[in-house]
Amino acid sequence: MGPRARPALLLLMFLRTAVPQGRQMRSHSLHYLFMGASERDLGPSLFEALGYVDDQLFVYYDHESRRAEPRAPWVWNRTSSQLWLQLSQSLKGWDHMFIVDFWTIMDNHNHSKESHTLQVILGCEMQEDNSTRGVWKYGYDGQDHLEFCPETLNWRAAEPRAQATKLEWEVHKIRSKQNRAYLERDCLEHLQQLLELGRGVLDQQVPPLVKVTHHVTSAVTTLRCQALNFYPQNITMKWLRDRQPLDAKEIEPKDILPNGDGTYQGWIALAVPPGEEQRYTCQVEHPGLDQPLIATWEPLPSDTLVIGVISGIAVCVIIFFIGALFRILRKRQASSF
Asked: Which residues span the membrane (predicted)?
């Protein structure tokens, strides 16, 4: 199970935030992704943990080594031994909790002799207006399974099969209170400490490069708006027709992917009537931009013009060769006399 690429893609759905017009507000988050797998007749045998501040991987842990490994330069150079010891102890505790929870879920599904997977994401987000939000979710065999509700200290079952585990966990009120204390207090304190360590790195803003491209198939004309090489990943992209926002149903969902250098790329596509491309513009908002950026498709020279240029060049070449041939024949005739 790769510890880098897949978790980064999974976390994108949790890390996107809504932002207002103009220069966008910057939120911050701390999330951990736990992944485990069981082997047939052996039970849970694999546990990996990844920690992200905002969308930057900063720590990796696995059950075999039982060591927390820093994965970002600002962590290597600035983290105090006390903070790192505290983080390592937390990951070891979550390692144990994860295995116990994995067994509980498999037993409640009567799956103890089969191979299965479990994923957990937990963490907190902090907005610039000081509002906060916590998340603690379980996924089983690739499907949403359980979600903790700190307001009520209950668990929300995402599928009927999760009901037995929900009822079992809700009996343990002490654990539920500990979960809430972590999401509403401890997680936010750790986030503040890590943001201070990553100052100058985590708060950088790289504006996107934006372009609109044109694609024609046998039946559909499509405009694609691309935003390239931006950071952080929260970005708003929308299509306008005659300067008015389009209904979301008319637009393909926005897709954002990480680049290998820590920046991101995103795009949205729109099918348009042929010949009406100039009515559509793409509007992009990002924390690195002082104001929304507007981009339109700039058509290339028409096919008629291209054909005309090619034809003109061909005629010139033919005239050149005819003239050269005529001079050669004149010289031969002159030399024969």
From this structure: 305-329
